């Protein structure tokens, strides 16, 4: 008698694009975040100490751009439009909120909360440092714009870098095509540099405020990406970006679980 056919092995199909592990190339070393944080800390100390060479550079750059802003009202209106609306921190937070919602819809809860936590930590860090350093903003007899809170670090510069770097990281994690990554990189780079320029041009920040915001934003994103990658490797949980696949067995192989 012919043997009784055995039922086929159980198969499970992944319902989201998730690789088994994040490639090492997409996880910045923790030392990079430490280096950026140390540079930001050193800059903050120099600001607190009113280090002469730094203060001279800040004053020279800010005063030169302010003269241009006063004499070019049309260009100043354009700078205010981009600084106060297009690159405003709330616009950056809205973009990250959309990314958070998208990741939750895909079931990538751990990555979604990593993005949200990084954004919230950036806001808290910049406000804490503003209160701690308590640096005065430039004061003009003929101001072209106004801003609140202390000067160091620039919240606009830090928010733009955090949002831009996080979005680029997400695109790489999810295997976006090179053309999309290059385009997004160009937009992010233009936004980061552009918002830094507008804040100094409009006379509401010193140059070192902007550089401090960039350094702190870079340190925060690098640290978050490094921590997320380490956690994914330790738990052997799938990360985003690998495409739908089928596994045989109990469904515990690469691509079978959601990012939680």
Features:
8 helices, 260 residues, 2% strand, mainly alpha, two-stranded antiparallel ribbon
Would you give an account of this structure?
The chain is mostly helical and 260 residues long. It is 64% helix and 2% strand. It has eight helices and two strands, in the order βααααααααβ. The longest helix is centred in the C-terminal third of the chain and has 29 residues, at 207-235. The protein is globular, with a radius of gyration of 23 Å. The chain starts with 10 loop residues before the first strand and ends in a 12-residue tail after the last strand. The model is unreliable at 7-20 and 242-260 (pLDDT under 50).
